[in-house]
């Protein structure tokens, strides 16, 4: 049974407050509890990943603390050397006193000398005299520590800037999914677009249906995962992702949506998570884009509006104002209704074909046979 729906444009689906595992922008809504204290040291051992994944505010705090802290620690060492040698202003210096560091007379000047040494400023007012071996060893050690801190902090900042998550921000999914007829099958459709002109190489699309199920043994499985295959007209692997694509999942007997109807869909409790994996063409870094749809974000009996057109200059234009908009179309009320209607039409077509064959058989005389006569016929003339 088909629904004949009046054609009107459906606005972009609103976001519901229903809890979900994966948010619309791809973040996972999950937290870990009752973790043993010893397991926290695993984050310290894997310190590089920990520093890359922490928030920017903590990275900036680490940046400031690392440099100012090292300057201050080494300033205390320079101050201790100057005090041990009697170079401070408050100390009584004898005639002919040989200083270890020129113009380091207190803790403030020692801090300035430490900063100038580690940042290689070298104003010239404060410098080593070369008469103390300890100062030479300390300046070498501070220079090496300064280079290490520079490399480490630059690496963290560069790694955070070039995270694949940032590339994923320029790939977007439609706010809603739709269910309609496509190529003679009932399909679930979603849209995905790459906002950059650079391609995602080796793109693959797939989905997971998350729901709570109960096994025949009575065990309740929370967030049970079921595979949902998506494809485009050219296949599901190595997508040519130069323009927005409409991905579809055929709802057949092997589909987890086979038992759904237009009436029962809003009452379901599941979450459809869609993944897009690919490699950025410009950076060669792998990235994954995620989004999710709950039953209230799946529109039964709708189809997406076209968004690709061709301009007078021969260029292809994408209208993103209609990216998530849909229009009502004629759609079966359920998969069973669609299959019943198809079977009925096939049955009627088969009966009509048989009827035509019977009519043809009624006209032809099956008992009539054509034979060849090879004997000559005598003709008697009167």
From TrEMBL:
The lineage of its organism: Eukaryota, Metazoa, Chordata, Craniata, Vertebrata. It holds the Pfam family IRK. It catalyses: K(+)(in) = K(+)(out). The chain crosses the membrane at residues 58-81, 136-159. It is a multi-pass membrane protein. InterPro entries: Ig_E-set, IRK_C, K_chnl_inward-rec_Kir, K_chnl_inward-rec_Kir1.1, K_chnl_inward-rec_Kir_cyto, Kir_TM. Belongs to the inward rectifier-type potassium channel (TC 1.A.2.1) family. It is found in: Membrane. This is ATP-sensitive inward rectifier potassium channel 1. Residues 22-164 form the Potassium channel inwardly rectifying transmembrane domain. The keyword Transmembrane helix applies. Residues 171-340 form the Inward rectifier potassium channel C-terminal domain. Keywords: Ion channel, Ion transport, Membrane, Potassium, Potassium transport, Transmembrane, Transmembrane helix, Transport, Voltage-gated channel.
């Amino acid at each position: 049974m088909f629904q004949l729906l009046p054609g009107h444009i459906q606005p972009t689906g609103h976001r519901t407050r229903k809890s979900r595992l994966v948010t619309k922008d791809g973040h996972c809504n999950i937290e870990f509890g009752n973790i043993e204290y010893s397991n926290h040291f695993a984050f310290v051992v894997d310190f590089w990943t920990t520093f890359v994944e922490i928030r920017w505010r903590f990275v900036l705090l680490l940046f400031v603390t690392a440099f100012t802290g090292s300057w201050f620690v080494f300033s205390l060492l320079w101050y201790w050397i100057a005090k041990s040698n009697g170079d401070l202003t408050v100390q009584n210096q004898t005639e002919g006193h040989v200083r270890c560091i020129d113009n380091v007379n207190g803790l403030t000047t020692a801090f300035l000398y430490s900063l100038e040494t580690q940042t290689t400023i070298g104003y010239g007012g404060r410098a080593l005299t070369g008469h103390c071996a300890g100062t030479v060893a300390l300046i070498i050690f501070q220079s090496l520590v300064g280079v290490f801190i520079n490399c480490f902090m630059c690496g963290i900042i560069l790694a955070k800037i070039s995270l694949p998550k940032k590339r994923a921000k320029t790939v977007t999914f439609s706010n809603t999914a739709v269910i309609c007829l496509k190529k003679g099958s009932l399909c679930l459709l979603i849209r995905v677009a790459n906002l950059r002109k650079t391609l995602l190489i080796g793109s693959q699309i797939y989905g997971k249906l998350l729901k709570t199920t109960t096994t025949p043994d009575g065990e309740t499985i929370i967030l049970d995962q079921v595979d949902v295959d998506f494809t485009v007209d050219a296949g599901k692997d190595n997508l040519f992702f130069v323009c927005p694509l409409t991905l579809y999942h055929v709802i057949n007997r092997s589909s987890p949506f086979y038992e759904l109807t237009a009436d029962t869909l809003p009452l379901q409790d599941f979450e459809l998570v869609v993944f897009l994996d690919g490699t950025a063409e410009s950076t060669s870094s792998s990235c994954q884009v995620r989004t999710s749809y709950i039953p209230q974000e799946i529109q039964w009996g709708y189809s997406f509006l076209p968004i690709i057109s061709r301009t007078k200059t021969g260029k292809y234009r994408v209208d993103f104002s209609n990216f998530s908009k849909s229009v009502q179309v004629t759609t079966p009320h359920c998969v069973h209704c669609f299959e019943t209607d198809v079977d009925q039409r096939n049955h009627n077509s088969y009966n009509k074909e048989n009827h035509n064959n019977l009519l043809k058989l009624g006209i032809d005389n099956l008992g009539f046979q054509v034979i060849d006569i090879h004997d000559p016929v005598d003709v008697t003339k009167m």
